[in-house]
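In the lab's daily routine, each protein ends up as an entry in a very long ledger. A line of letters takes care of the sequence, but it says nothing directly about the fold. The three-dimensional part falls to structure tokens, numbers that each stand for a local backbone shape. The outcome of that step, for a single protein, is printed below.
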Amino acid sequence: MRTLVVSGHPADPVAAKLRTLLRGRADDRGPAAATFADATDWLPQVDPDVTLVVLTGDPARGLEAVHRVRAATPGYVVAVGAASDAGLIMRALQSGADHYLDAADLAGGLDAVADRWQGRSSAAAAARPAGKLIGVLGASGGCGASTLAVNVAAVLAQDHGTCGLIDLKPGKGDLSALLDLNPQFHLADVCQNLARLDRAMFDKVLARHHTGVHLLASPVVFGDTRLVSPRGVGEALALARQTFPNVVADLEDCFHEEQVLTLRQATAVVLVARLDYTSMRNVRRILDHLDRVGVPLAGVKLAVNRFGQPNELPAESAEEALGGKIAYYVPDDPRTVNGANNTGIPVVVKAPAAKVSAALQLIARDVLDRRAKKSGSVLAKLFSH
């Protein structure tokens, strides 16, 4: 079990005792420590199963930390404070704590925490999502990652009857436009209604396309983007994977917390790039970063989109610079692709015989094939240093 202890000061005596007890009972690697100010920065690095927030030194700031931690992680959150202060206990639970631990009985209280967390973990394991998750990430602007995501989802819907599609580009997502949909609800609605979110409610927020793709759209109003939380994205991913055999997520970047959370859960990641200097440069930077944040590089496949443009870098030179093979090439066909995008029909449906459609069909059917690991393993070897 991985744990994180959050307090007003690293030398807080309650926090120090907690870390000692946890090291001996639960976290063999030793619990990580963070202050109220940097707690949310530590969460994606530690990825704790249980986060314990010590309220004894500064209850007001501690409660704020509980609220921020709760919004940033789907893990178990424990508030630690005086058991005699009923008002503090209530406020801690209202702020999002799953459990309240008496600071005067840490040893005994930790046993109860472990029992409750393990019980919830076992229940979660029993209902673990079965659906596979494909993350689509653009290396730079204009790579066509969203177009690729829509078409991969459409192919998987054709093959399996249905497919989930999640737009993780709050405020600037294109998926609803690419499918000519006008969703009534979006990702921020999910994040704002976590207390009553279930399969039935989740089904209602999805917009249905005639191809069998079910879209969870991104907020279109910029002011709503601040409502999107890592916890909400985590719940949306879990429900989507319980509902659909395959889910495609169109990612905004590789460093915001909800994006990293998605990348870590992904069965496979398609990194979309162009054959130009800036895009190839970003490929290396992104892969280095994914390795640092714990995303398995063996599952990352590099796809060159709009292949065949004038004056692009030679593919052989790009592969030589990267030290590995490019997994997929999608030919440049603006007439066919733009015609499909402008009518809200994926190109694999509107022009299934086109070469660009054949390339997109290959990606959708190959990226989840566990036998096809050659390109991913080459990249993993290259960027593991």
The chain has two domains: 3-126, 132-382. Residues 106-126 form the longest helix (21 residues). The domain at 132-382 is CATH 3.40.50.300 (Rossmann fold). The two ends are 27 Å apart (CA to CA).
